[in-house]
Amino acid sequence: MMHFWRLAExxxxxxxxxxxxxxxxYRLLKLFGPFKFWMLGGAFLxxxxxxxxxxxxxxxxxxxxxxxxxxxxxxxxMNLYNFFLPxxxxxxxxxxxxISRWLERIVTHEATFxxxxxxxxxxxxxxxxxxxxxxxxxxxxxxxSRLVADIDTLNNFYLRVFTPFLVAGVATLTMAGVFAFFSWxxxxxxxxxxxxxGLLLPLLTERLxxxxxxxxxxxxxxxxxxxxxxxxxxxxxxxxNAGPEILRRTGTLNDALLRRQASMAQIAGFxxxxxxFMGNLAIWVIVVLAIPLVHxxxxxxxDLPLLALGVMGSFEAIAALPLxxxxxxxxRAAARRIFEVADTPLPFPDASGPAPRxxxxxxxxxxxHLRYPGANRxxxxxxxxxxxxxxxxxxxxxTGAGKSSLANLLLxxxxxxxxxxxxxxxxxxxxxxxxxxxxxxVVSQRSYxxxxxxxxxxLVAKGEAEEDELWAALATAQLAEFVxxxxxxxxxxxxxxxVKLSGGQGRRVAIARAILKDAPWLILDEPTEGLDPVTEMxxxxxxxxxxxxxxxxxxxxxxxxxxxxxxxxxxxxxRIVESGTFGELLQRxxxxxxxxxxxQAIPEIR
Length: 606
Ligand SMILES: Nc1ncnc2c1ncn2[C@@H]1O[C@H](COP(=O)(O)OP(=O)(O)OP(=O)(O)O)[C@@H](O)[C@H]1O
Hints:
Elements lengths: L1 H10 L6 H14 L4 H37 L2 H6 L3 H44 L12 H41 L3 H49 L1 H6 L3 H53 L7 H12 L6 H6 L1 H15 L20 E8 L9 E8 L4 E5 L6 H8 L7 E6 L2 E2 L5 H5 L2 E5 L9 H6 L7 H10 L3 H6 L17 H15 L3 E5 L7 H15 L3 E6 L10 E6 L2 E6 L1 H6 L3 H11 L5
Helix pairs in contact: 1-7, 2-12, 3-5, 3-6, 3-10, 5-6, 6-7, 6-12, 7-9, 7-12, 9-10, 16-18, 18-19
Bound molecules: adenosine-5'-triphosphate (ATP).
C-alpha cells in the first residue's frame, strides 16, 4: 500500500508551469556553461552533417535528372554536359557528411562525458554538506537514483533537446534560404512545413509524453529504493520469509514502469510516423507548387528533383524533435528532483572563519540542548559535562538516553539549539566542521567498512599512510596476524559492510583506522556491542592500549570496562543525573547500583 502512495507522491505535479520548466532548463544551461565550446562545437558539426545531407540529396537529384536529360538530348548534348563538376560536388557533400558525422559523434560524446562529470561533481558538492542532518528525509536508494539516473536523464538534455533544437532552427533557415534562390514561394512553403512540423509535432508529443515521462522518473526511483532496501535487508527478508511480498511489490512497480515505457514507445512511434507523413506531404506540396514554375521556365527541368530530394533531406533537421520533446517531461522531472536536493537549505551554517587555536582540547558543555529536526522532544535536554583533556570519561545510559547524540554533537553532524559546547574554550559552532572533526577518532558498533580492501578501508583515515604505518596500526589493533594469514594480505576484500570479517575483526579494522588518524580524542560509541563476552573483554583490553595519551569518551549501556575510566556520567533522558568514579557510583544508592544489581540478577538482559 505504502508504495502506491509513494508513487502518487513522486509523480504529482508532472505538469509544471512553463515558467518553472524554463527556469530549470535555463539553470541547467548555466551549469553547463564551462563546456559551452564543446556543446556548440558538437551542435555545429551536427548542423554541418544535416546541411551536407541536404546538399547531397538535392545535388544528386539535380545531377541524375540533368544527366538523364542530357542523355535524352543525344550524343552531342551528352558531350557538352559537364559531369565532373556536379559529381565532384556530390563526392564533396558525401565526404563532408561522413567526416562531420564522425567528428560530431566524438565531440558530442566528449561534451556529454564532461557535462556528466560536471553535473555529478556539482550535485555531490551540494549533497555533502547536507549529510547527515539535511538528508534525513531522503532514503539512500532515492539519493542514489538522483545521483545516477536523474543526472543521466539531465545529460540527455544536451544531446536530445539542446542540440536538436538549435540545429533545427539554424538548418531550417539555411535550407529555406537555399530554396529562396529558386523561388520565394517555395522557400516560404518549405519554411512553413519545417517550422510547423518542427514545433507542432514536438509540442504534441511533449503533451502526450509529459505524464508518462515524469511518472517513469518517479517509478524508476521507487524501483531502485525497493531494490537497494531489499538488498540491504536481505537477511531479515529471508529470515521472516518476506521475499515473496517484496517480489510482489517489485513486480507491481515493474508492471507500472513497463506500462509507461509502452506508452512512451507508442508516442515515439506516433512522432516518427507523423514526421514521415509530413515529410512526404511536404515533398508532394513543393512538387505541386514547383510544376507551374517549371512550365513557366522560372525553374529548369532538373530543378524539380533537386527540390523534391532537398525537401526529403531537409526533414532530417527536425526528425529528432518529437522524441526530444516527448522526453522533456522526464528531463523536467529529473531536473526538479536534482534541484530539490541541491536547493535544500543547509541544516545549519558551517563556520567560515579561520579555525580557532586550541592549546588543550578540554570539552565543556553547559545547559546544552539538542533536538533533531522534526523531533518533538530534546535528545539532549540541558547537559552539563566537563571532560578535561587527557582524561577518560564514560557516558552510561539506557537505550535512547541520548548517548550517541553526544557523539553527533561533537562531530558536528547536528547543531545544538541552546546552551554552550566548547572545545579548548571555543564554541563548537566557531570551528569549520572539517577542522573540528580532526580532533576526534571514532570507533563505534556502526563503524562502516567499505566493500573494498583492508588497505582502502584503512586509507580512509589517512590517505597518505605508508605500508609500514598500516601494518603498525593493524598490529596495535591486534589484527596484523589475521591480515598476514590472508593470501591477499592488505588487499583482502572485506565485502559489503565488512561481511567477510567477523564482528570483532571488523571492529579491529575500525580501531586501526582510529590509530592511523591519531586524533587527540577517541570516541568509543558502544564499541563492543554485539561481541560475545570473551571477545568483548579482549577487545576492551586492547583498546586500553590505544586510549593511552588520548582523551576518551566511552559511550556505553553496559557496565563492562567502566572501572578503567576516570569518571562515569549517567545520562538519563538527555540529562546527566549522576557522576563519579565507577567505585563511587557503585557505593551510592543511585541509578548505577540499581543497574548493577539488576544486571547481576538477570545477567543476560542488557
Ligand atoms: N537522527 C535522528 N532524528 C531524530 N531523532 C533521533 C535521531 N537520532 C536519535 N534520535 C532520538 O534521540 C533520542 C536519543 O537517541 P540516541 O541515539 O542519542 O540514544 P542512545 O542513548 O545512543 O541510544 P542507544 O543506546 O539505543 O544507541 C532518541 O529518542 C532517538 O529516538
